[in-house]
Design a protein that fits this description.
Structural class of chain A: alpha/beta
Strand order of the largest sheet of chain A: 2-1-3-8-7-6
Shape of chain A: globular
Largest sheet of chain A: 6 strands, mixed
Helix content of chain A: 25-40%
Strand content of chain A: 25-35%
Number of strands of chain A: 18
Distance between the termini of chain A: 49 Å
Oligomer: homodimer
Radius of gyration of chain A: 26 Å
Number of helices of chain A: 14
Chain lengths: 415, 415
């Protein structure tokens, strides 16, 4: 099955928005065995939308669009594409009723705004693609030659949720059994530089089992991506074998696969080991707590923490000796150690973390430059501390600090 | 000047790579007065590249491509596009000499690999676009009707450096003095739904001063973007006037412009009013602290905070009455109020925040469903609390909670 994607919005043509919707759909459909052969973006312009859909239908007869289904004047996807198919727009009162229910469920009174009526206008003969995640329904429009256009909302959360619900089942029907898929697996590593990986990987550096190996460095570490193009069963077997080989080479630097978050890995380890965590954060200002509690169900592991952004609060809430702060400075090994131990003591947890550093852009000195971060982890009374020299801007330095802290917990618990 | 962009590479069609090249060029050219009317991505496939360039030339007669200029077998942009223009590829020995010099300058011995010969093949009659940042030269190809295609390398660093060097000067010549630029301004609003804005905006809903108005909803609120297409001086004047009109309609819902962060606005207000902040966070787990401390220099306003993820820690660190937690539940108005007041008292600040809610996906009940968040803000001893029904997934509910909290501080200080 060949397909084209059309993403709609002035912000795409002005370069204000990265086309993450197109990339997401492309990734999901490739894994399914659908081949995306062209991606196009046009603005909120009826004739440009119509021309792009007409072109795509002429080439592949199959196109998925995102964007322009909202309740405002610049949302013109449905009328523009209905015209290409020669259909009129008709109001769907069932959708209006659903919208009213939604409105009420949010505790609002009266009727939804009149502007929302636009969202229940559906091309004649089209199938409504139910949107359980927002107010804009999707539309599946098909002509008598089997050429079709599926319209999805541009809000990424809604589009991502709808894709497996309303698009994938319809495409599965159209895909033959013999279809080749493009599938990939990602092994996540952290604590090792991209330039140091080839030494570990040896002959796997260029690829594994005939599959290319891509190095994807980010704030989280370096992801290793393998991509297979084969029939579904073959692809999965080749990938599983290749990931196992990579894991053997990378050893303790590997912490997960796919989009697995290190915080999730740490929470899982804590559950197995019956440990609880409390954090003491200075330069990260709550980011470690935020990352841990971003994972659903984290409350059985995370007791809480203190954002000790002032010296006084380090002493008051974490019991750091103020004389030590005066002598060694707030960014120092001793302070990080006392923060970690204090977090354990005050919250009554087995694990405590202390993070104190210079996130920049100002505040660096020759002895304590921007990017110097002291991190200490206390596990069952045993405190280990580590000084990192992290690179990047303020946001990166802060994120990398939380990643180092999480990895220190992971290694301590895995040992 | 109307123009199209074509980005080339299998990774784009597989969705592994976000098309940041296309977005970058679009942004730079729009501000210059060039209008990007369509963006297309195709794979490393000669006939797909040729078809896309042919289509673009028929529509606008002007296209910039990125990608496919490297030394490997999948780099086929030049032969594919040369064929569209009916040109042969001829070796450019000057380029070969430059490549040899580059090779030597890296301290390498012998000749560059034969594969690099591919990079010096240039369509007959084309202009070489010098690449001082890598080995792949760009190409400017133009026919006798003035239709042109500029090819740039796909490596972002090289493409970004070449754009102002070799593309912008050529486009400036074509733009002419009377040329219209595309400039935009964004007014940021929060605390009001996209569907409720038309009522406030009245006749401005569809546009202001003849400029279209785009609604960009996100977790932060709804951004209103105005885009002017006019000569430079006119554009700026029209935009300034239109933003003023929007501000008047939107009133207190407007908190900033451009990419200004609400946390930054709040910090600025606190500095003016000589206020300091402490946070008490339950369901947001440190995210509010993280957002405030993400802004450089925030330590003069932010004293710190407590991540009170357990009931016990709410009492221990923020002084919440445990009897009230038992009676009303942790997610309740009284607890939020006591958290806010406790944050002030314990940290000695003029402003305290308390956030407690059900972020989901589990833990909701009919009385306290997922998305219910109680937020209290204490300013100089005066506590105000507000129950929000927030939508989205766990991450969104948490982010929206911090946005509501920040907005409550902003409104309290602005009053």
């Amino acid at each position: 099955v060949l397909i084209e994607l059309l993403t709609i919005g002035d912000e795409l043509l002005l370069g204000f928005t990265l086309d993450s919707n197109g990339a997401h759909i492309a990734r999901e459909l490739s894994a399914l065995g659908v081949e995306v052969v062209r991606r196009t973006s046009v603005g909120d312009d009826a004739s440009a939308i119509a021309a792009a859909v007409r072109d795509a239908l002429d080439r592949t007869g199959a196109v998925i669009t995102t964007g322009g289904l909202g309740p405002t004047a610049d949302d013109i996807t449905k009328p523009a594409i209905a015209a290409v198919f020669g259909r009129a727009l008709v109001p769907n009162e069932e959708l209006w009723e659903a919208l009213r229910q939604r409105w009420k469920s949010f505790g609002r009174t009266g009727e939804p705004p009149a502007a929302n009526r636009q969202q229940i206008m559906i091309p004649a003969g089209a199938t409504v693609l139910v949107n359980r995640h927002g107010s804009a329904p999707g539309v599946w429009l098909e002509d008598d030659r089997g050429r079709w256009c599926a319209m999805l909302p541009g809000v990424p959360r809604e589009m991502r949720a709808m894709l497996p619900e309303v698009i994938v089942p319809r495409l599965r029907e159209r895909i033959g059994a013999e279809s080749r898929v493009v599938r990939s697996r990602v092994l996540r590593t952290t604590g090792i530089a991209e330039s140091a990986l080839p030494e570990l990987l040896g002959e796997l550096t260029a690829g594994v089992n005939g599959m290319p190996l891509a190095y994807l460095p980010s704030q989280e570490g370096v992801d290793l991506r393998l991509t297979a193009r084969a029939d579904p069963a073959d692809a999965d077997a080749k990938l599983a074998d290749a990931v196992a080989k990579l894991r053997q080479c990378v050893g303790r630097y590997a912490y997960g696969e796919g989009t697995e978050d290190l915080a999730e890995v740490v929470l899982q380890l804590c559950r197995t080991r019956h440990k609880h965590i409390a954090v003491g954060e200075s330069c990260t200002g709550g980011m470690l707590g935020m990352r841990l509690t971003a994972i659903p169900g984290s409350s059985d592991v995370v007791a809480g923490g203190v954002i000790s952004y002032s010296n006084w609060s380090k002493s008051e809430f974490l019991g750091v000796d103020s004389a030590v702060i005066d002598e060694r400075g707030a960014v120092s090994e001793d302070v990080a150690r006392q923060m970690a131990a204090g977090a354990c003591a005050r919250f009554g947890t087995e694990i405590g973390v202390g993070i104190t550093g210079v996130a920049g852009p100002d505040g660096g000195t020759p002895e304590k430059p921007v990017g110097l971060v002291w991190i200490a982890v206390c596990v069952d009374g045993d405190v280990r501390a580590h000084a990192s020299r992290l690179f990047g801007d303020r946001a990166e330095i802060r994120f990398r600090s939380t990643q180092v802290a999480l990895d220190m917990i992971r290694r301590a618990l895995a040992a």
